[in-house]
Specification:
three-stranded antiparallel β-sheet; about 40% helix; about 100 residues; 4 helices; alpha+beta; globular
Amino acid sequence: MKARKTTELSSILEKKGFALDPKKDHHRFYYLIVDGKKHNIYTYLSHGNKEYSSSLMSVIKKQLKFTDSKLAEDFFDCPMSYQDYKDMLKKAGLL
């Protein structure tokens, strides 16, 4: 996984169906929202990191339930839509 800026990650997560949990303030927690419901698929971003290294991106990949780095890169580079992501999770039995 390639390194990415924190601001870029926040923007992509929000575009792909994740919502920031305002109750959490130690880190910024993003939960997946499907049909208006919060699911147990989440990740969090630190307030102090301006960029996430490739090793931290691998952690985020696992939190978002990607088994393939190529699919995770597609998610963050935007060829994968919100609907594609939901379909992948449904196929894996996670939604």
